[in-house]
Amino acid sequence: MDSRDILSSCNPNITDMNDTINLRQHSRTREDYTELRDQAIKSFQKPNLPNVNVPEKIIICLDICYDNENSLYRLADGTTFTPVNMLKRIVDFFIHSKNAINKRTEFALLVLKDNEPSWLQNFTSNLKDIIGVIDYLNAEESTSEIFDFQKIFHILKNEVLVPEYSQADCILPPPYVVRMIVLYGRSNCMPQIPQDDPYLIYLKKQFYFYIDILLAHEEDCALYKCEEIYDALQDLDNGYSYVYEVSRNATKIHDCIAKLLAHPLQRPLQKNTDYSFGCRY
Predict the structure, then answer these.
(1) CA nearest to 185, candidates 152, 210, 218
(2) Cβ(180)–Cβ(156) under 8 Å?
(3) Is the confidence at residue 114, as pLDDT, over 70?
(4) Which of 75, 93, 172, 221 could form a cystine bridge with 79, CB 3.0-4.6 A?
């Protein structure tokens, strides 16, 4: 005789309890199926973009403000860099590396001052032009509590032309893609990113425009707003961004900028990246 029948006959409430459990499991299975179905539909709706190394127009959005003048990055040989000079150093590395990968890569420079962005260099593939402007930038102390990113969107609207995506021509590569790399170096000044800004809404819908973010913050986050700033910067992400954060670690900040060398049309989503070396045997 089945022991389950014995338990049921001894306590009729057990049958009701089993029915309830089965009902919950059925409901959970149905919910899981619905979620999987929605994910599949969403995947089918993603654009079929050409996986081609087309030229990039890269906007270096460089923050030149600092919170603590005594905060330093230290290399293995003992050399030290201020936060702004370290950002300038890794930008120099990034620009030369991208140029070595594709000579047709163009760079523009957008500088974040205390509470005002400034477009200092139009798109150029001449490294001397872009590096020369960066070298002469001076660090400024951060005094503002909020940085309004809406001012950046207004500049982009006037200075940047993003290629249009056409479903009918989806297999044809665009003439170029546009990417803005935000190198934000403040730990007390909150980025204000209005989600209802018309141009930000427009940019987030463009399949040939990308925003990547590198937050270089102070070491002791208990004394600063590092976590809040990191969360706020996420509002720039349309689902295809690469977002990194690093404190005063010279090795890690170089690793992060190296990961941003990948071409937006050829890289996976950040959550699917794997930088480990696989075993051949």
Answers:
(1) 218
(2) yes
(3) yes
(4) 75
How many residues are given for the chain?
Answer: 281
Helical ranges in 163-249 per DSSP H: 198-204, 226-233
Cα separation, 179 vs 272, in Å, equals 20
Check: CB of residue 59 under 8 Å from CB of residue 180. Answer: yes
Q: Tens of pLDDT along 54-112?
A: 999 999 999 999 999 899 999 999 999 999 999 999 999 999 999 999 999 999 999 99
Q: Give the model confidence (pLDDT) of 74-90 as tens digits.
A: 999 999 999 999 999 99
Measured distance CA(107)–CA(96) in Å, rounded = 11
Picking from 86, 88, 186, the residue whose alpha carbon sits closest to that of residue 141 is 186
Split at pLDDT 50, 70, 90, the class of 51 is confident
Cα separation of 211 and 243, whole Å?
A: 9
The model carries a pTM of: 0.82
- The amino acid occupying position 139 is A
pLDDT in tens, 237-276: 999 999 999 999 999 999 999 999 999 999 999 988 888 8
Query: What DSSP string runs through 234-277?
Result: GGG--SS--EEEE-S-HHHHHHHHHHTTS-TTTS--GGG---SP
Q: Determine the distance from the C-alpha atom of residue 212 to the mean position of all C-alpha atoms in its chain, rounded to a whole number.
A: 4
Q: What is the number of other CB atoms lying within 10 angstroms of the CB of residue 77?
A: 5
SS3 76: coil
Where does 47-176 show beta strands of DSSP type E? Answer: 56-63, 65-66, 73-74, 80-81, 106-112, 117-124, 140-141, 146-148
